[in-house]
Every structure is written in C-alpha cells, then in structure tokens.
Write the structure tokens for this entry.
Amino acid sequence: MAHPDVPGQPADGQTGRNDCMRKKAVPTKNSLALTSFFSADDILIHQEEGSRNQVIRHLLMHLANGHGMMEVDGYYNAIIERENANDTVVANGIAIPHARLDNLQRPYVGVATSAKGIPFAEDKPPVHLILLVLIPRDQPGLYLQILRSLASILRDRNAARTVSHLKGAEEVMRFFERGGMVLPEYVCAADIMRDELITLRNNDNLKTAIDCFISENLSEIPVVDRDGDMVGVVSAGTLLKVCLPDYLLWMSDLSPIVNFEPFTSVLRNEQSTWLSDILLNEYASVQMNAPAVSVAGEMTRRNASKCYVLNGKKLMGIIDLPIFLNKVFRE
Amino acid sequence: MYSEPVVIIPPLRAVAKIGVMAAITALVGWGSHRLGLAPTSLSMVAVCTFIAVICTTLFFWTHRVAVAFIGVAVLIGSRAMTLHGMLRATELDIIFFLIGMMVIVGALKDLGFLTWVIQAIINKKRMNGMTFTVILCSLSALLSSVVDEVSSIVVVLALVFQVCDTLKVRSSPFVLMAVLCTNIGSAATMLGNPVGIFIGNKAGFNFSQFLSGATPISFVSLLVTLGIVLIWYRKTIHQMTLVMEEHRQVHHGLGPLIRIPYRRGLFVLVATVLIIAFHHQIENILGLTGVENKNAFLIITPLVIAGLLMIYRPGRARHYIEHDVEWWTLLFFMLLFAIAGGLEEQGITQNLADKLTGLVKGGPTAMVPFVLAISAVGSAFVDNIVFVAAFTPVIQALVERSAEFSLLWWALLFGACFGGNITAVGSTANIVALGLLEKRGHLHIAFFEWLKIGAVVGIVTCVIAWLMLTFMPMPHPAGHPVVEREVIGPLHEPHLSPKTAQ
C-alpha cells in the first residue's frame, strides 16, 4: 500500500502550508497597505448577537451606507452563496467572507469584531474577527493578495481575540496600521498551492504505485527521494506505457492486440519494477515564489493539468488546474 | 521523431567554450592563409565560417542549426559565396532522397513491420546471451544498411530495452554493441548513412557498384567487431545467459506475444530495396542517362514509394511528413553542404587537393590510409557528415585529375562511418542512442567507457578497410571520365595500381 507523505511538513505536526503565505509581504515602493481599503468608519465592533448571515448583512449594509453602494441584495446573495459553497474561516477565529462583484470600481473591506464569537461553520470554533472583502470581478488575485497581507495575524493564535476586545473602531484601525500589513506585489505559486498531497518514493515498486492509483483515484503522483526532493512523476499513462512497450505503439492500428497479452509480463514483474526505472522527468513545475501567472504558462506549455511547486528541488505542494481556475476566475 | 534534449550550459563555461571556438577558428583561418590554402580575405571568411560550424557541432551541439543559419548569411553577406552558389550547394537531391526514406521508415513502423522484427527476436526459443548478442549485432548492421542509421538505432534499442528491462540486466553494454554495429552496417549500402548517399551521389556510384565495394568491407568489419564485443563483454553476456535461463525455467517470455500483420511492411521494404538496387538498369530503360540524370531514379524511388504509401494511408500521411521526417537534421545538412560549398567556390578545396598530392607521395594507394585516418579522427569528434562535406570537394578535385583517386571515396566513406564509433559524439546514431539510454534507463555511458571499446573497434575496422582497399579490386564510379585531364599542381605522375588495369 502506498504511504502518503506530506513533504516539507514541520516536525511539530503543523501543516507545512507555504512559507510564502506565512511570510509577511515585504513593503516595496509600489506596495499597498491593507488599511488603504478601509477606514475606522468601515469597522463595526462588538457584534455579539446574530447569526453568520445577519452579521454579514449588517456589515454589508454598513459599508453600502458609507460608500453609496446600490446593489446590496445582489452582493449579499453572492457573498452567502460563496460562504455556503465553502466557508471562509481561515485561521484562529478569523473569517474573510468575500465575493467578486460586477459594477464595483475598487475593492472595499469592512471589519467586524465579536468578543463572544459568531459561529461561521459547524465544524469550526466561533469567529472573533470578520473581514468582509468586496472585489471587482476583473481583478483576479486581489483576494489572495489581501489574504497574504494578513499573514502576521493569521499566524498569531491570539490576534482575533485581542482585536475583539478592543473598545473602539479607532483602536481596531490602529491595530491594523501597527501591523504594517501590505499587499504583496503579486500572488505567488505558494499562495495557490495545496500542500497536502500523496507522494511515492523512488524506491517504491510498480505494485505500490498501481495500488495507490486505484485506492486514491489519482491520475498522477509525484515521486520524491528520501530527502523529499522531487525526482519525477508517475501517471496512469506511464503505467499503461510500461504495459504497452514503445515498439507496439509505433503501430497506429493496435487491433491485433485483442486480449491483455502486453499486461501479463507487467503483472509478473510489478513487485520487481522500481519507480525509478519508469518515472517521467518531464512535468510542470515552478518555484514557490514564482508569480502565480507563471503556473498558467508552465501548465499550458507542457499541456499538463498539474503543476508542482518546488523550493529548490524539494516538493512543497501542487496546483491542480481546477483549483488554479477557481483561484483566478472565482475566488 | 526523436526529440533531442536541450543542454543548458552554465554561463562561465559557455564563455570559455566560445573563447576556445574563436581561438580555433582564428588559428585555422590564419594557418590556412599562411599555407596558401586561403590566399584572399574572402577565402579566409569561408574557412573561418566552416570551422566555426564544426566547432559548434563540437561545443554547442544544440545550436548547430542556428549557427549554420548565421554561417550561410555571413558567406553571402561577405560575398564569399553567391546566392546561386548557395542554392546549388544545398544538395537538394540528397535531401529529397532522405525525406523519402524517412517517410518509408515511418510507414514501416506504422504498418507493424519493425514491431514484428523485434517481437520475432524476443520470442525466439533457446536464446542465450551469446545468441542475443550475435542477433543484436547482425540486426543492427542489417537494419542500418537498409534504413537510415537513426531509425535503425531507435528500433534496435527498443529491442535492447525490452530484453534488458525484463531480465533486469544492465542495458548500456548492449546499447554500445548495437551502436558500434549500426555504424559499421550503415557503411554497407547507399541507404544506410547520409554519408553513403552523399558520397555515392557525388562520386557517381550506382547502387550495385556501391554495394559491391562497400558491403564486403562492412561485412568483414562486422564479423571482427562481433568477435571483439563477444570477448570484451563476455562477463555481461554470460550473466545474461544465466538470467535468461532462470527466466525460462519459470516459463516467462521476454515480452508480449501478439500476431502482428507484417507482410505489407515487408513487401514495402523489399520493393524499395529491389527498385533501388536496379535503379541503374531502370534509368537506362527510361533513357535517364548522362551527367544531368546521374542516379535520377535512385533519388526519386523513395519519393515515389513514399507518395504511394501516403495515398495508401491518407489518414497517416501528415503524420509521416510531420513526425517521421527529421526536419531539424535535414535542415542542418542543407546548410552545412552550402557552407562547405563556400570552400569550393573560393577554391580552397582545390588548393587543399594540390597540397595533399604534394604532401603524400605515392599516389592514391598511399593516400588511402591518410584519408582514412584523417576522416576517422575527424569523425570521432565532429559529426561525420561535417567531415565528409568538407572533404568531398577535395577528393572531387583529385579525381578530376586522375580516376585512380576514386579509391579515396571509399577511404572517406569508411573513415567517416567507422571513425564515428570512436567517441560518443562521433555519429548521429551515437548521440541518439545516448539520449534514449538517458531518457529510458536514466543511465549514462561515460566518455572513457565508450572510448575504450570505441577506439579498439574504430582502429581495427579502419585497418581492415585499409587492407581491403589495398588488396581488393574496388569499382570506379559509373560514367566517370577515365581520360585523365592535364594535371595542374604537384601531381605529375599518376599512379597506376593493378586494380586500374582491371
């Protein structure tokens, strides 16, 4: 049976989710501060009563009144639809409900705090800090940039509780200003990668790979060495290629093969065929600090549906094409 | 279609290589001027351009086509070569021949013939390490003599990988054996190596003349090479025998057994070889005689058969043209021939012929080992077609003085083909084989591992070629003017060997 490895996972058991995400964005000449998207007037403190939807509607109305927004119902529906599809609780009592909206000239951020906590998702603890983010539809990546600017408070386990006990909107505003939260210049590959992935080792055999493909219902699995360095991939196509040698595939007409004759020898040898002998060295990969748009280039160039995110040679995560499309077009 | 891996060279190393290239180019340019080979500035440009392209194949293999493009532009831009001369020198007849042959090989793969060949071998009963080696070497030589060397090595290595992967035996020794025999077999006919068709066409040999001269030498060289590899790799071969025996005891085959419809492919191959073999007679029947129709039917036969195959398989026609024709290689050949044509246009090859005849006393027979050695050593380090393209006009100039010198065509052929065995970069087949080994088995053959066996086989086979060229009557090109022209330069006493009398 395959042994799922999570490469780059810290010893303390915390998820190894991208250093890039955890690292505070370094301010540059063109950096935008998170606080440039909102002011103390956009902050509601001590929202102790009400459900998730009520708090979101209340905060949205507050923003709409302050900035003259007209389509509140439409915006509200879009936010709730997004929230129902996948909750936006990111970490340690913080939720970032958001939506990509038409007819919006610039991004808007509204902040609400709750010392008691608002239940946002059934399986997660109540939320103490809510950032409502409204983004123009044609600005892909902005939400991820905002998310990354919050890296310092996402890391701090007590940040949400601390903010929720602040007494006034001005104090909350100062909290964000003191944090020096700036949007990074671009979204990097690590911002959109998934770091929980199944890998195989180069000294695994073909049987392990076949079992893993079947049990995990995967089409491609990365192969790493003992140091976690990526050495290649095995795909379902690779396995078929092992069964059907090149010299059979030279023929365009494979009708002479009516039974599974070519698979016989593979089945006999599956325990003595090592992945290092059959893995493919050609796959889509980017370094974790590469701009996320380079992922699109790499996947297109190699006609791949997955792109591996590396730190040097070490495998850090994976970006699937559907996830990439979701991040760019919908998130 | 074989895809070549792109080699990325670190910047410092690249700068060092460019420095060495520039130094070699300048030195040869200066040397050729001092020796009187390139007396004018334009002739020096032609020499330097050609040397730069040779150096590129040695130092920046990946960029050879790019540099050849620039080289042609330099020659035309500097007026060292005319546009008309460039177009004439590209040898389009040879390029068309190679295109036709590549399409035919693509169709042979598609029709299952080459799959059937591999399957027939891996399902052979009672095979052991030694019989596998003998079959492998024979197949490599035979296949490379009827299809081009690159297609041949791709097919033969598919067999090697299938057997070695199944038996878990190290494949690199068998890859080496296959490549050595491929290079030897490719010299046997005009179909085997681009060098063969180039020399055959330039010299004016017809297919049967070429066959009667080249095949015996290739065959003897193959037998001796087989003996060498059987001794050299005796431990590996013995180990394969043991593993095969174990494998057989548990009733396991070496690969899948499928009924492949091979007859159509076999018919295409036999028909192609037969028509090409009788091209001279067909040319006479059709009235395609004279210098302007030299080997006309030889050139158009692959095109006709390729055309018929594309009509027979219309759904695959585009695939044959787009994937089975090595356009990259053919483009390089055309540009290289054009650049070598620059040497001829500037009279450098004529001057070199004069110097050679003055330098090597004793006529054509004495020149054979000289040409053999030069072309073997040269082909060991740069692609053999490069050397042949450079040397051909020199030999043409010599042959124009005396038909006796046509013996040197053979010396050039065997030097280029057998010398290609010496190092890993000696021929296109070697480079393709290394690429496949690396891609398939993640293995690499070290330079010196290749050099040890390559040098032994290269030297021994060149000596065999020398001895046979000295003692065996070799055919003269068909329709070549045997009336000796007035000798210009140092050659005053044409040497008449006993073979000429025959």
Observations:
- Residues 81-494 of chain B form one domain.
- The two ends of chain B are 46 Å apart (CA to CA).
- Chain B touches chain A through 30 residues (CB under 8 Å).
- Confidence is low (pLDDT under 50) at residues 481-502 of chain B.
